[in-house]
Design a protein that fits this description.
With 225 residues, this protein is of the alpha/beta class. The protein has two domains: 128 residues, Response regulator (Rossmann fold, 3-Layer(aba) Sandwich); 70 residues, Orthogonal Bundle (Arc Repressor Mutant, subunit A). It contains nine helices and seven strands. The strands form two sheets. A five-stranded parallel β-sheet has the order 2-1-3-6-7, sandwiched between helices. It has a two-stranded antiparallel ribbon with strand order 4-5. β6, α4 and β7 form a beta-alpha-beta unit. α6 crosses α9, α7 crosses α8 and α8 packs across α9. The longest helix is centred in the last third of the chain and has 15 residues.
């Protein structure tokens, strides 16, 4: 696996590199300190698998330029890495073409969940961005347009106990492989459950399923178990 880390802070690139090397034995890491350098390296690396891109760095002025930047890159998934926890920013990054959004405050272990998900063609959105805030805590996220889709028609009562377990892990950002490992199932069986869950909830992808699930949690006194 070849990963390009694009961030103007050398110490942060070093930390991400260490995290990746501890998780994957066969990872090759490239580093860029500016958007221009990352752009050039992406075009010069034919077998690049993933780009971890800082949202604010020399040559890239945040969301305003992200869409154009991603469109100019080869067909390599781009995951935004940012310190911004604003829901509107997360949503805008996904709409601009990012395949995922990682908070810089996250533990390095999050990469173990994000990378397989993104490389399999799925989207990753931080669980915090769709989770119900604890009562009494300051809301760290503004109202998210991700939650403004009126097409949701969740039917949680129709979920089987196993589907409910799968949904809980899905909302935590687990990949199908990780869900299968956690629940002692075949990955193919997990895919069947995920497809059934999305159909029953009236959603089109995993992110919408997570949002719908967390909406349900807000109206429930107990979490999914």
């Amino acid at each position: 696996m070849v990963v390009l880390i694009a961030d103007d802070h050398a110490l942060f690139r070093y930390g991400i590199s260490l995290a990746l090397e501890s998780l994957y034995k066969d990872v090759t890491i490239l580093q860029a300190s500016s958007a221009e350098e990352a752009y050039r390296m992406a075009h010069e690396t034919p077998h690049l698998d993933l780009i971890l891109l800082d949202l604010m760095m020399p040559g890239l002025n945040g969301i305003a330029e992200l869409k154009k930047y991603i469109e100019g890159l080869p067909r390599v998934p781009v995951v935004v890495v940012s310190g911004s926890r604003q829901r509107s920013t997360i949503r805008a990054a996904i709409e601009a073409g990012a395949r995922g959004y990682i908070l810089k405050s996250s533990n390095g272990e999050i990469l173990k969940h994000v990378l397989p998900l993104v490389l399999s063609g799925e989207l990753y959105v931080p669980a915090q961005a769709v989770a119900n805030e604890e009562i009494g805590q300051t809301n760290e996220f503004e109202t998210s347009p991700l939650e403004e889709n009126s097409d949701f028609n969740p039917d949680f009562k129709s979920l089987t106990p196993r589907e409910t377990q799968v949904l809980k892990l899905l909302t935590l950002g687990y990949s199908n492989k990780e869900i299968a490992r956690s629940l002692g199932m075949l990955e193919g069986t997990v895919k069947v459950h995920v497809k059934s869950i999305m159909k029953k909830l009236g959603v089109n992808n995993r992110t919408q399923a997570a949002i719908a699930a967390n909406r349900s949690f807000r109206g429930s006194s107990s979490p999914v178990t």
